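thought: fold this chain, then report.
action: predict
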Amino acid sequence: MIRSLKLRAIIILAVIVWAIIYIAPTLFNTSPNWWPDFLPNKKINLGLDLKGGMHLILEVETKEAIKSTLDRYSDNVARVFKENKIRFNKMERHDLNLIVYLDEANRNKAETILPDEFPNLEVKEVDSGKMVLGFSDKYLKYLEKFSVDQAVETIRNRIDQFGVTEPDIRAMGNSRILVELPGIKDPDRALKIIGKTARLEFKLVNENINLKNFDPKHIPNDSQLLYKTNRDEFGKVISKTPILVYKKVLLTGEFIKDARVNINPTYNEPYVSIEFDRQGAKLFDKITAENVGKRLAIILDNSVYSAPVIQERISGGRAQITGRFSEKEAHDLAIVLRAGALPAPVKVLEKRTIGPSLGHDSIQKGFYSMFIGGIVVLLFMILYYNLSGLVADIALVLNLLFILATLAAFEATLTLPGIAGIILTIGMAVDGNVLIFERIREELKKGVKVRGALENGFSRAFITIFDANVTTLIAAIVLYQYGTGPIKGFAVTLSIGIVSSMFTAIFVSRWIFELTMEKYRIKKLSIG
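observation:
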């Protein structure tokens, strides 16, 4: 018996020490100077409703991703037709279809080759002189899902580099994304970084046409009119210069390996230095070698940032983006280039910003309710169950300590519903103690001695407590799996609290009673 008590004492002490170690950084608000480096130093993360921040619901314009994919397919289709000597007059994309103008003989040859070369393309319509191609329904669904998943990863990469701790970014439904950024200090800047498509393209400038007094209606079919924004020394937009570029994309940002902010020592201005991966470096080397003396436009989201003349072949796989940036603008541009381009534009459907003062009020009210509720429960247990109630109170305090320590250990996020989950757990822990104490009372009324009453009370109440807690735990797991932010916060603290309350109500309380019995040889139990 004594050996068993000592072993359980060691286990309880070890758990308490573990809890104190993990909760200390939160209690001190930061790790104290004397805190060893090898010990945990992270505080409990506060959710959006407690810390303040930004809540966004975005919609991915998946239709644009499909159009972009179809544009890439058109180049490959044209190449395959050329290789197989299939002649066509023109090929153009119209919405989500690819229209090829060709005669009947060439159309028949194309229908034979297409299923093998492009299994995702289907012939949607055949008419005299043309053939309409489009993606299969299965591939369209794949592209939509892939676009949303890729957008989630891209946004997550951007936010990680922006420096937000514990962001919540996940897909919702077929085309929507939930973004929650706790503690964000500059919501507008974050929104710009999140929503920027960041499609980087390199195209040659069409210098065959003088744009002075040029009529945009007469733009050649192989070219497009873009604009370069001119800024003053303070970064203010002063004018826009039209630049005619060829539509053909020579290189895209998908080959970017790294993007960094540097300072031009001559003008003391920041610029973005980009480095291509191996394949991108080869392409850039080829492009610059074949076009020495020509202007190469560097285009981001259909806006020309710079269009320098290629002075010589560039084989190092590096380029620069200039444009009178502020240091913050250059830093943000480097972030989106490193994180990659969004597969499709995103639009904001819902935006809410929660101020730190509201979060502070939520914390105060949440903890006041937890404190007041806890005090009432502690007093009730002592008044109703006398010294046995005090044992239950010790278990309740330890229960709260273990819950908070577990939140810190697993770097979980505490939300306002999470505080509600803790309060509910305190009530459930009390319920467990009440079941045990009422069982003990029944045994004592039957004339069973104190030791036997304790043994029977704990063993018989265990099954009831276990069943009730397991069913609640299953419900909490389901809530976590299928719920959103606030519901997940509630489910997390409830799950942790259930496990902790079972440990304190059954293991810790029983140990205290048995230790007291062994040490003081109690003949009568103070249980009200």
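thought: worth noting. The chain has three domains: 2-52+355-520, 63-140, 196-353.
final: tokens above.
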